[in-house]
């Protein structure tokens, strides 16, 4: 069951990522990207995996220690819970990056690969995006202008 939940956490987030990458500018994508509720199914998977190892999880986060954390992630439910948490936060991060890119007028052909990088290695994807964002920050009166939506 834990293996199924581990995989399910990704598959629950995948449709949102597909919209962000392959259907930018569509109304449905804009609505989905603006909603923090996209992560709720993934968080339910997180809770299902975290519950059986909650004492170990609490020890790992309330008094951080590398050995305690390693012991937590050595357990299938512990690793699965950490994975689901990463999937949920990465998804929220990707949604924010998508909305910021739309606001700044960053082309979808730039953002698509960057969002894929964020799915795979979110810290690197975020760093690249922050550099791109800083370079694209408007410095004149048209600041905040959004890219028009397509139907």
From TrEMBL:
It holds the Pfam family ABA4-like. The chain crosses the membrane at residues 6-25, 32-54, 106-132. InterPro entries: ABA4-like (IPR025461). It comes from the Bacteria. Keywords: Membrane, Transmembrane, Transmembrane helix. This is DUF4281 domain-containing protein.
């Amino acid at each position: 069951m834990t293996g199924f939940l581990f995989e399910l956490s990704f598959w629950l987030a995948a449709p949102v990522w597909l919209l962000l990458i392959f259907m930018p500018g569509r109304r449905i994508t804009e609505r989905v990207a603006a909603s923090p509720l996209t992560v709720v199914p993934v968080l339910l998977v997180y809770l299902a995996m975290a519950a059986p190892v909650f004492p170990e999880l609490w020890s790992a986060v309330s008094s951080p220690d590398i050995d305690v954390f390693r012991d937590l992630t050595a357990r299938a439910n512990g690793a699965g819970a950490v994975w689901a948490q990463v999937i949920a936060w990465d998804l929220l991060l990707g949604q924010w990056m998508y909305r910021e890119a739309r606001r700044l007028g960053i082309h979808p052909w730039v953002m698509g690969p960057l969002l894929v990088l964020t799915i795979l290695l979110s810290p690197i994807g975020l760093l690249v995006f922050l550099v791109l964002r800083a370079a694209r920050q408007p410095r004149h009166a048209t600041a905040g202008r959004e890219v028009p939506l397509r139907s």
